[in-house]
Amino acid sequence: MPIDLIGINNENEFYTHHYLTAILEGDLKPVFETWSKLERPPWDGLRRLAAPFSQMRKELAATSDPAERLVLQRDWFSELFTVLGYSLSPDAVELEDGFLLSLAGQIKRSDGRPELWILESLDESDEEDPLVSKEDLLTKQVFAAAEPPRWVILYGGVQVLLLDRTKWPAKRLLRFELDQILGRHESSTLRATAALLHRESVCPAGKISLLDTLDENSHKHAFAVSEDLK
What are the start-end ranges of the H helices in 37-172? Predict the structure, then answer.
């Protein structure tokens, strides 16, 4: 059975559509084989978060208190990011124009420059698209900074978005719909989500990231298809 990507939206072709549907599974196999040897592979962590996710949604629906809603969402997302190899640690960075940007977490390179920023977009409605309130900020502040991060993970409501600075001008991104991914309990979807979002895939210390390798393979495949068509 091919890998099931329902709930993982490849917006504006973050990777080529054909690569995702025909090639990606083979490129992820080494990761799956390595993680399968672990006592608790990351996708098992995602599966265990499904019930707490459902409970959080119920509790959010039962309260309109903004402070309580914020705590409920932050607690659950903290667990999610732990499973994915990150640590949420609130911080702030001052950008060139004096703008103070709040971060939910960050990863720096060995020289101290930013590699990845985690941004929170928690609104009163958990159905809100986290990009709606952050798109201008990302374009005019985050990726326009003198030393911008290569990666941004934006989360809020029932979504996690993975953004690459090099693809942002074309608004290419991966959008993970948590209600579908966790609600369906589909093993291959959970595996793909873990592989595409995990810290070891996005920005491993001192190594070329899996996502850059996937991107290179995607471009090579697209070029080969183009040449064949000629």
Answer: 42-48, 50-61, 66-83, 135-137
